[in-house]
Amino acid sequence: WVGGNSSASPYYFTQPGLLGGHLDDDVTLPIYGLASFRIIIFAIYSLVCVVGLLGNFFVMYLIRAKRATGLTAIDVYVFCLALTDFQFALTLPFWAVDAVMDFSWPFGHVMCKFVLTMTILNVYNNVFLLTAMAMTRYWAVASALSLRGRVSPSSAKWISLALWFLALFVTIPTTIFASTSKVLGEELCLLKFPDNKWLATYHLLRVIIGFVIPLVVISSSYIMLLNFLRQHRVNANNQHRQSKITNSVQLIIIVFFICWFPNHAAIFWGILLKYEAVQWSEAYYYFHTFVFPITLCFAHSNSCLNPVIYCLIRKEFRMALKDSFLHLSSLSRLAEQNNGCWRPGKESALNTAFDIGKPISMGH
């Protein structure tokens, strides 16, 4: 979906008018061969899928366990972000199969429309939630020294729901124009717009809404946060704590930029091509054949990096993660002692080892 042309698959290049002489025919041609390259992409998609599913599931589990001790607005956003990234990871097997089959879509028209819609919906929602988290973090710190109210967990839930509806709204064009089509005998999953200008406008709006505006807001929020801490000398006597906050902010901005900028830069080249601001060239073809797939991998990796950045770097979640592994280890040892058999009378011991029915301790 993140390609610079009408194909949902990234490894098709566009040469307007190649089959029929019309600039509005956004013709896509498969790149035959390069089997090893396709296998590498398949492997990366599969790895990101597995890590994204496991990482985001565990984040959701930890946050649900924390409910007993109370959730913050950031916890609500992180849970929604993990759920969004989990759903996005579920779409990756389809794109992995599409890639390894030389980008021939084998799942039919309905699944093309559904998978493409869910992919874009979750990517938009991901970016919107990251933006909301950045704004909420600044507001939480700024409001701590004033009479202004902070964002409550209940408000965060409503904001998350509103952002989901916003993501759904901007995904409507994808749902309408996603379709399968025969190109040179291959069944492709495409975004079939009436002409190139429509497609270029679609991609331009996606770059602005899905990258430029969020990047500006996220960067501005965290920069204002750091300036606020310095001006009010928060943690001034604790240089280590201040350094950790600064490094965390830098990490958030850098990872977001590295994951998304290469892909959106590649898309922007395609936009210029469709608006006829630049001419199609072999450089564009080779770029979209060999470089663009790498930008896609960076973009997709964001779904498995988010749990680490926004959850596991927090002390309370690291403690909860450690406690969970200790509980699992205790459970495993008890199972081994009993030869893996569940016997009457052992339920009490297992309950004690795994704290069944009790929330994970989120203590410091």
TrEMBL record:
Please list the residue ranges annotated as the G-protein coupled receptors family 1 profile domain: 55-310
A GO molecular-function descriptor: C-C chemokine receptor activity
| Transmembrane segments annotated in the record for this chain | 39-62, 74-95, 115-140, 161-184, 204-229, 249-272, 284-313
Q: Which GO terms describe its cellular component?
A: external side of plasma membrane
Coarse class of the primary localization is membrane
InterPro entries given in the database record = CCR1-9-like, GPCR_Rhodpsn, GPCR_Rhodpsn_7TM
For this chain's UniProt record, which GO biological process terms are given?
calcium-mediated signaling; cell chemotaxis; immune response; positive regulation of cytosolic calcium ion concentration
Identify the keywords attached in UniProt to this record, alphabetized. Answer: G-protein coupled receptor, Membrane, Receptor, Transducer, Transmembrane, Transmembrane helix
Domain of life, per UniProt, equals: Eukaryota
UniProt subcellular location: Membrane
Q: Which PANTHER family match?
A: CELL ADHESION MOLECULE, RELAXIN FAMILY PEPTIDE RECEPTOR 3.3A1-RELATED
Supply the name of the protein.
G-protein coupled receptors family 1 profile domain-containing protein
- What organism is the protein native to? Leptobrachium leishanense (Leishan spiny toad)
